[in-house]
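thread from #wetlab-drylab

HS: before we spend reagent money on co-crystallization trials with phosphoenolpyruvate, can we at least see a predicted complex? here's what I'd submit
DV: go for it
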Amino acid sequence: MNASLERVLTANPHTADATADPLTAENATVTRSDAAQTPTTPGRISREALPSASELREQLPVDVDLAGQIRQHRDEINAILAGDDDRLLVVVGPCSIHDLKAAREYAQRLAVIEPQVRDRLKLVMRVYVEKPRTTVGWKGLAYDPHLDGSDDMATGLRQARELMREITQLGLPVATELLQPLTAAYLEDLLGWAAIGARTTESQIHREMASGLGCAVGFKNGTDGGVEVAVQAIEAAAHGHRHFGMGDSGRPALIETAGNPHTHVVLRGGHGQPNYDAASVAACRRELEGAGLTPRLMVDCSHANSRKDHRRQSEVMLDVLSQRLAGDDALIGVMLESHLNEGKQALPAAEKLSQLRHGVSVTDACLGWETTEHLLSLAAERLREA
Ligand SMILES: O=C[C@H](O)[C@H](O)COP(=O)(O)O
Ligand SMILES: C=C(OP(=O)(O)O)C(=O)O
């Protein structure tokens, strides 16, 4: 674990036998009928054990070289947050990963342009494998990698880790939203940057999790546009916590965190209203300063800031650039939802998955590659001229 320590919680630590842990991959397929033999809560069935985080990490390790690269990315991102590096942090990539081939193709393209803009932009690829839903819907690669409702989470976690490792090997840091605290343990060592989403910024559990992460964390403002919850999240995450969690071995554990000072607000608008304009940015700055915090803000050019029209992301990004060029150095970064091809498509029924268009989002609409490439080059150029 990174900044977290764990103490395993067992009823009797003297008799606890890690090798007999029912939560190991090999011994633990619990079918519906198996589960029915176990007294359980009606309406909640433990269907299948998943590998522990340490098992998956052993199978898909981060070697010394890669760990060094991730540390370097994290240091650079932290330096941007600290005001010691004046590059713009750009979190860019698909709204969600649903197709590994398309994700790899996107990463390869991003890795090609990264050296051309590196002097002014710090690119981080969105590799979002969990999706928070307003009501119900596909919850992301980690939950349902086959897109057919089979919810093969063991495969989902494995594919997510594999993909993040490959993308990091291309020289790109990886960003993701950490939604389900249990899944964080499987992925956190690979992350350059993490988001806590608009629906969970107010959650104590997510703030505790963020306080133990080794990477920088952006807290989105609430879905109602409220910034106060993100400011409070920054304060909460900066503190050390002790909380219930899952240890690396897969057993319940008392987790102790050190506190994370590398956090910031992400403005994403709310209730259909943007909040990237200079007045909203100034209001957020005042809120942060009022809480005794150094104002550091990222603007999410999508979501309510684009009024959910992906084409508007360009105008949001250009506006943020202008504010930054006019001297607002609290604006440390932007987020873009972008895929190989623009727009979005509905996820079809399982038997029609072959009809999916390549490189088109199945969640929120995204910018296409050409526009993304143009925007990144333009941003680097403008910042160079400043
Ligand atoms: O970024 C993605 C979506 O805005 C978020 O997951 C909510 O999606 P939904 O409203 O389609 O459920
Ligand atoms: C779900 C996302 O954003 P938000 O939490 O702002 O809705 C996202 O960025 O994918």
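DV: The chain has one domain: 53-385.
HS: ok that's useful, forwarding to the group
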